[in-house]
């Protein structure tokens, strides 16, 4: 929409919410396809865990780089990142061996990281410019998209359709919608008139604010990715659920995350960010213990729901604090740096669970995430934000 005062495009929350929904749909279809991907490639638990680390390995540097590019070039970077992720999302489902899967996941991770920092920076810009709280709602719609994507993939798999084809169809639609929405994205997210020189930006490669909150978000993403990316495999291998049911596990997790984030949006207007993060860590620990002790698909799904609802609010809360505290001309850079550090958790989550499962059992591996959940609560008490805007 146009800002009648300045004549420039003003970023609206609707554009941001649509982007998060599309991002979630693509991720949901990918997550529900993991059992099929595991079978198609002949990967063991350890092989799959090691391959999944490639997602975070490629995403982290992409986020650090794309945040800077977004601050400098604006709209072209945002549109390119969204289209790139849509194109890369189906690639893992076409892998026929573990080496092919590694390459596909590297491309998927780079594209996902690029898209992630773009949509989070857009949401942070809306929050900072308008005062409207957007990030928890946006992440909730990501989770809704994730849920719908997993349900679609589960239904198509049950009907005998290869998991890759729904991903291809959605990728095409996403690219078309992104191109059609180009005019809704402002040419620049902020004016670049003064602020820091390029030399000063180069010296400050890791801002202390980004480092502190990046580590906190990394703990949350470790739990989130560790549970989510192994949930379908857990149901099939540990509680012997049918393939049509096992594919719903990431969807149940995503659905509970959506509810948690809608609730987190309500809580964020009434409680401090510290309280929200403290509760997130404690309750997610309860959820992973329920999963680890489950003896049936129903109990496991309850555990996934508790863990998903609890951990869901942590990352968007962190990104909101950083976005509101950052100067406008460096907002995408700092959000990108925070997210880049946070993606270390996304990198470690699946591989830690896979490696522990290889040495012990998948139940033990999931239960071990309790330690990380408790660390989130401790960090929430200790970490403080800079800037007058932050309630932490």
Brief summary of the model shown:
With 392 residues, this protein is mostly helical.
Describe it for me?
Helix 12 (273-293) packs antiparallel against helix 13. It is globular and about 50 Å long. The protein has 392 residues and is an all-alpha fold. The longest helix has 33 residues, at 98-130. The chain has helices spanning 13-32, 34-41, 45-73, 75-88, 98-130, 135-158, 164-180, 198-203, 208-237, 243-246, 249-268, 273-293, 297-311, 314-325, 331-359, 362-367, 369-382.
The class by helix and strand makeup works out as mainly alpha
Order of helices and strands: HHHHHHHHHHHHHHHHH
| Alpha carbon gyration radius | 20 Å
Shape: globular
Number of helices: 17
How many DSSP E strands?
Answer: 0
Instruction: Give the rounded overall mean pLDDT.
Output: 80
